[in-house]
Description:
By secondary structure, the protein is α/β, with parallel strands linked by helices. It has helices at residues 7-16, 38-44, 46-63, 100-113, 131-140, 179-189, 206-221; strands at 22-28, 71-77, 91-94, 118-123, 146-150, 156-161, 194-196.
Amino acid sequence: MVPKFTVGDLEDLKTQYSEGRNALILLARAPELGKVKTRIATEVGAEKALHVYTRLLKNIVSSMSDLEKSVRKIIAWTKVPDNTGDYPDWEHWLQPEVDLGDCMQWAIHNSVALGAEKAIIVGADIPDISQDRIERAFDTLDYTDVVLGPAADGGYYLVGAKRDIPELFPDINWGGTDVLDKTTESLQKTGISFQLLDILSDIDHWEDWVEWSGRIKKYTES
């Protein structure tokens, strides 16, 4: 069963934060040495892996700084870090200890329970995520049940909905290369409408980081 906030938790959160028409939830790991970007760590070491993850996290947080005020911005951490003051415009939630599918269902359920009309989830591994893409995803939910941002590795970097949709998170291998295909198959079987955004690549390996960093440096210097 997917964990949900208790009634008391929800009332406390409603008191602490104003309700937003839309909710953006960033699923993130606490930036700790040896706990993030483990594939990169095996290639170049844990310190460089932590540097990459920290930069990616700062990148997506800063890129959302100008989202309209009606968007409720939430970081759902695996472990809430001590430096939450570095993210002053964001709420800080603690993820339940469940698999990724159940965690995403938890995030959407509780965002809607707190008053959001639309909820969108993203991860911290997509460096080219942008405010424009997030706003486009929210707009897309005006005419469809679900929005998905396909990742180049066969998964997705963004998922959004306006209500609980169990079919959106089927019982699948969340680390596989067919996550997007399995998800859309599940939605099609039950007649739930969805739209796909453009494909983006994530940073899984050191060479991915080197390529993206070089591209950004060239862009900013041009």
